[in-house]
Amino acid sequence: MSFTIKKRLFTPGPTPVPYYIRQALAEPAIHHRTAQFKEVLIDTKAKLSRLAESENQTVVLTSSGTGAMEASVSNFFSKGDKVLVVRAGKFGERWGKICEAFGLDVLYYDIEYGDSADPNVIEEIIRKEKLSGLFIQATETSTGAFHPIEEIGKLLKTIAPSTLYIVDAVSTMGAVRIKTDLYNIDILVWGSQKGLMIPPGLSFLTISDKAFERASSSDLPHFYFNVAGELEKQKGGSTLYTPATALIVALQKALDKIFEEGLENLYKRHKLLASATRAALIEIGFSLFPKHPSDALTVITKRNFDFEKARGELLNWFGILIAGGQGNLKGKIVRIAHMGYFDIVDMAGFLGAFKLVCSEQSEIKGDPVKRFTEEYNKNE
Ligand SMILES: Cc1ncc(COP(=O)(O)O)c(C=O)c1O
Q: What residues does 282 pair with on adjacent strands?
């Protein structure tokens, strides 16, 4: 059975790429050692820092988000440095693996998957341990949970001001507001293929002066990800190596569109889509998996429900791809994105299709599309 001729991504990265970005990507190639590229890079970097609400410089890397995660370890720490990693899902696990690979002394704050960090526990740890850094996600994409990064940043500032605060906001930027400087974030790690609406291939680091001071004494090996070297070059509109020029041109366009919508509207749209999608899915018998959900995606669970079958049918019947659970969560949850280029019609359409495939395996009471629009209008 198939009801569509289109493919639709509802995955938490990569996300749908708008037509105006595809047009930008189709422009003739430009060379990276030209005045034209220099202008694009300088402007784009300034817009990235503006979106991150930071006075600090943002460095653009040609890599996936994990490259920026690695660079934030290999450039700012030294062998044996004691760091805290908040591990509440697959991406928290990744922080730990990177830190361990570079020989850091890693302390874990393990949290049940689906839950978020408790600032009181963090306070206890940072009062006891002298830490060089604290690594955390804003949105833990594997569970849909949002960590209280603002509170943790404020705690660090008052109790442990020398600890570097590194926040992975790869799946958060462009969907949920991050006030980098106000939250005292020293290194903000982000990427291109989620809320920013462009294809995979770029990652970003927004870096405080405090972090750069630390970088000068780092003894960890790095070559391609030379953040200080990149920053020096990029301030002048150039890069150390050949960057993904087409993606940077597309990124400039994406940021222009984001500022055209306006940050208040951008975050409000994500909040509305998140709350209405959740209300609709609860209406038809699902539960939210995370206790404190991020507005970037919705993650649901239900006992005795075959999520993998539903995912397969959504794809076969409607061309809709949603993400399943990873690791131990496989088959127990699904992850539905509304970060980036999504609007009310996308989510209402998704919910109608989802109800149909779910009805194949259990009786579904309630009308998710009606509940979605009620909730959306109530909060508009
Ligand atoms: C929170 C988070 N961190 C890091 C990454 C890694 O990014 P990439 O897959 O681009 O390396 C992702 C991507 O899914 C993510 O969601």
A: none
Domain that holds residue 354: 8-15+262-379
Query: Which residue, by CA, sits nearest to atom 12 of ligand 1?
Result: 170
Measured in angstroms, how far is the CA atom of residue 293 from the centroid of ligand 1? Answer: 17
Asked if residue 168 has its Cβ within 6 Å of ligand 1, the reply is yes
> Do 246 and 274 reside in the same domain of the chain?
no
Spacing, Cα 137 to ligand 1 middle (Å): 10
What are residue 354's DSSP bridge partners? none
pTM higher than the cut 0.85: yes
Q: Which tokens belong to 300?
A: 């649901």
Are residues 267 and 293 both part of a single domain?
Answer: yes
The tokens for 79 are 């062998």
Do 178 and 149 contact (CB within 8 A), yes or no? yes
Q: Which of 213, 241, 260 is the last residue of a domain?
A: 260
Q: What is the spatial distance between Cα 378 and Cα 229, in angstroms, rounded to a whole number?
A: 50
How many domains would you assign to the chain? Answer: 2
Mean pLDDT, 10 residues at a time, over the chain (380 residues)?
Answer: 90 98 97 98 98 98 98 98 98 98 98 98 98 98 98 98 98 98 98 98 98 96 98 98 98 98 98 98 98 98 96 97 95 98 98 96 94 93
Say if ligand 1 is within 6 A of residue 326 CB: no
Question: Would the CB of 294 count as within 6 Å of ligand 1?
Answer: no
Residue 93: give its domain's CATH number: 3.40.640.10
Pocket flag, ligand 1, residue 191 (CB < 6 Å): yes
Other CB atoms within a 10 A radius of the CB of residue 215 amount to 16
Number of CB atoms found within 10 A of residue 359's CB: 11
Q: Which atom of ligand 1 is nearest to the CA of 171?
A: 16
Q: Specify if 1 maps to a domain.
A: no
Boundary of a domain, candidates 229, 260, 291 = 260
**66 CA: nearest ligand 1 atom:** 11
Kindly state the helix (H) or strand (E) to which residue 156 belongs, with its residue range: helix 149-159
| In a shared domain, residues 130 and 65 | yes
Same domain for 241 and 334?
Answer: no
Q: How confident is the model at residue 380, as a pLDDT?
A: 82
